[in-house]
Amino acid sequence: MPDRPFPYGAIPKIDPSNSPHRELFSNHPSAPFLLTKFSNAIWLEKRPEELQALLGPHQRLIVANVEQDEELKGRTPDDEMDLVKGLQPAYYIPSDRWVYEDTMTDAEQLAEIDRCMSGTREVYERITGHDELSTTVIPIVKGWKQWHLERCRRTLDDLGLSYCAFDVTQYNTHDMILGDVRRLIEVIAPEGILLIGRLDPRVLRKCPPEVVAATGVYNWLNKSQTESGRLSRENFRVWAAEENEVFRSSQTGLHQFEDHSHVRIHG
Description:
- By secondary structure, this protein is of the alpha/beta class.
- The chain has a single domain (9-253), classed as TIM Barrel (Alpha-Beta Barrel), CATH 3.20.20.105.
- The chain contains twelve helices and nine strands.
- Strand 8 (192-196), helix 9 (201-204) and strand 9 (211-216) form a beta-alpha-beta unit.
- Mean pLDDT is 88; it is low at 252-267.
């Protein structure tokens, strides 16, 4: 498997079937990483000419199997591997499941976390065992309690994975995000974290230095629009520079990932 730097900085989550998104990000020098969810990546996998037009030589695609519960139901590692083999993204976040605090028992939470980790292990082993695939796996950590995170840590340790994703899309407060991120770091001790669902600079300024990347939609979309509602490549450039400065000013470790680190995530 290839050595690659961790994804870093502010990463736009995009819908490649949306032509204004493709026009905005095609070969954009300020967007070295683009993230899209699994169901949207299917559209791109079926249109290789659009993938070729979208990604410049400096850009890397991250596909995340992280989306609404209804989309995840019935999706198997076979389905995931079909997409990975067809699209061959630079990075893949596999096998997300749902874990809720108020509507699930501890046993139900445990079962979903174990399904996530089992799927992660299978997809990882199948990708690393495929000579023609250069996709790097980024595991997603599920849960918020210490025993949730311990369950995930076993799999990450077994597979030698030191960089992970953490989904905070449905979190209601900044304090909840920061508290759970700090607990994740205490239990798992990752080298880097990709925060999914929050590009708010008010949160990112307070995050520990292990949070080296974040992805979302609202912030970049809002800041890239002109008064007429069109998306501007220049407006995005300005936003990306300001957003990445938040990482650089508040997280001294980011320079290491951006400029020097070429870590073999697959161990």
